[in-house]
Amino acid sequence: MDMENEILIGSVVGDEGVLALEELARACGAEATWIIDLVAVGVLAPEGRETTDWRFCAADLTCARRVARLQRDFGASMEAAAVMIDLLKQIDQLHARLKQAGLNVD
Predict the structure, then answer these.
(1) DSSP 8-class letter at 55
(2) How far apart are CA 69 and CA 62, in angstroms?
(3) What are the E-state strand segments in 8-103?
(4) Predicted model pTM
(5) What angle do CA 35, 37, 38 make, to 5 degrees?
(6) What element of type H or E holds 92?
(7) Mean pLDDT by 10-residue block, N- to C-terminus, for the chain (106 residues)?
(8) What is the pLDDT of residue 8?
(9) What's the pLDDT at 104?
(10) Which residues, in sequence order, are CB contacts of 68 under 8 Å at separation 6+?
(11) CA distances from 90 to 54, 87, 101 (A)
(12) Which candidate, 42, 50, 65, places its Cα nearest to that of 20?
């Protein structure tokens, strides 16, 4: 297929859980077992009880991709990446609070 005429089809992923386990894994270029490991260490918290019922949202996709980058770029273990993700979330929350208080965070 000619790259200039290539048609891409996608889905908008919002706050509602729309990605199944396999879809999230595919979007991250990973295996489903890697996503299951992310859930096991508490990085992701999908909706649904069984893995076949799990649904993930856009924030989960962003988070999983961050973990993938941390592992790839820094050789971080799953547990170390989980700690880093938690710290990054806390920093984001602190920046939001500072901004809300009218303080410059840059």
Answers:
(1) B
(2) 11
(3) none
(4) 0.76
(5) 65
(6) helix 78-100
(7) 56 66 95 97 94 94 95 95 94 93 81
(8) 46
(9) 78
(10) 28, 29, 30
(11) 25, 5, 16
(12) 50
Please tell me the total number of residues recorded for the chain in this structure. 106
**Amino acid at the residue 99:** K
Which tokens go with 98?
Answer: 């500072």
Q: Is the dihedral of CA 70, 73, 76, 80 positive or negative?
A: negative
User: Rounded to the nearest 10 degrees, how much is the dihedral formed by the CA atoms of 93, 95, 97, 103?
Assistant: 180
Helices (H), 20-57: 21-28, 32-40
DSSP bridge partners of 56: 19
Number of Cβ within a 10 Å radius of residue 59: 13
State the residue for tokens 């077992």: 33
Which residues are CB-neighbours of 97 under 8 A, at least 6 positions away? none
Q: Residue 104: CB partners within 8 Å, gap ≥ 6?
A: 98
Look up tokens 């990446």; give the residue: 81
- State how far the alpha carbon of 1 is from the alpha carbons of 7, 11, 19, 71, in Å: 10, 22, 28, 34
